[in-house]
Amino acid sequence: MKQRFSTQLALRFGMIVFVTIALISVSANVLIRHQFEKNISERQRTFSEELAGALVSQYNDATKEWNLEYIHGFGMYALKEGYILKVYDQNGKVVWDAENHDMTACHQVMQEISTRMQEKRPDLDGNFVTHRYELKRSTLLKRVTNQKTAQEPAQEPAIIGYLDVSYYSPYYFSESDFAFLDSMNRILLIVGVSSMIGAVGAGVILARRLSVPITKMTEITGKISEGNYAIRFESEVQMRELAELSSAVNQMAESLERQEILRRRLTSDVAHELRTPIANVSSYLEAIIEGVWEPTADRLQNCYEELGRISALIGDLERLRQIETENMRLEKEKVDLLELAQSVRSAFEPELENKHLTCTVTGEKTIMLGDPKRLHQAIFNLVSNAIKYSNEYGKIQITVHEQEECAVVEVSDQGIGISQDDLPLIFERFYRTDRSRNRKTGGAGIGLTITKAIIQAHGGKIVAESRENHGSNFVMILPRGNIDTEMDIDVDTRNGI
Ligand code: ADP
Fold first, then answer.
1. Which atom of ligand 1 is nearest to the CA of 386?
2. Rounded to an integer, what distance in angstroms lies between the CA atom of residue 231 and that of residue 244?
């Protein structure tokens, strides 16, 4: 079972955000914790030094006595903060000892800190350690050792005593420190969870925006494949790729619809084209067989003409089959298109006279590499149409000229023209704009299909412009090919007509 696009996208989004948030949380946690621990350890050291500094001021030089009341208050304050103090005079005699003074409170504080730290940070493997400070009248205080034994310094300024500070090492967290770390973790968790929810939501929305048109397009293509060619994708899509896909689907439907209409027209046209002459021939023959009619030359001639119409239609179908199934083989040589146009014009002399049409060929000698028979056929079809669809006394103009690397042949008439709706379809096989009228002209609707195939086989293109009741203009544009290598015609002798 394949997952839905939206589910996949939402899951992937969620996963990416989860990994990102997890990485940020872990690294932030490690970094902040590391910095925090460094700060705390530093704070413990400076606090101890400040304690020692403050004690110095409690020594009376004149009386050589310590202010015990202050030291007591001071010691109890330090105890609450997790520092156990022991003050000695310069001879190493104990002046004030927190443990002596309130052993229970001291043990309770030590117990609390040790339990809390071992419970929350067993990895630290911490313990209470004592640091000794020399108490001097002035100047900097110096931590001498971690041992409890005092070293007698012999230098000035005179040592007035020693301070032993015991605290949990390497560092310890107070309740508020733990509260800070806990709230930091909580914030990271909240940010992480809400970002994940947001990301999954965004993934779902994005996936919907993508999957809705895709699903619609799948539905439409399904319907097209079932033969519903009139259906189109009409919703507005924001994304360029999807817009391109939808217009491609619409174009495909349009083209299939057009082909389907043409196919239906073709079937009914061919049936009609065959039925009429066959019915005529049958009725003639029936009457002759039953002795109603004499088989006169006229009647047999009629039958012959009707059979000719059928055979012409079959011939058209055959020609089209050839073009559509075989690759057109061109026998290329140097061709002068102006000459071809003139010979096509001459071939139509009787038709032009019948309809009192004027047909002029103008332009310049235009040599190209091409198949003369096929090119003749292409121009022939255009001129034949121009004559067929011109009104009496109309004008037809054939122009031949060069344009950059191309040869151009234009055939224009002042005939009935083609409507804008029909114009894009006239090159389709068996397409005829007005079927009843065209039947009289004898066209099966493949002349332009053949012309276009010939031009395309030469690497060129054909363009049609037309206005109803004003006339049409067909322009063939053909690449001239590398004529210099094959050249045996004098290109300088150009004639304009
Ligand atoms: P046909 O054999 O019917 O002429 P074509 O393929 O040559 O078939 O042309 C297709 C259709 O295009 C014609 O049936 C006609 O309706 C239209 N057509 C082609 N050329 C012209 C033109 N010069 N003037 C008006 N209509 C034209």
1. 23
2. 17
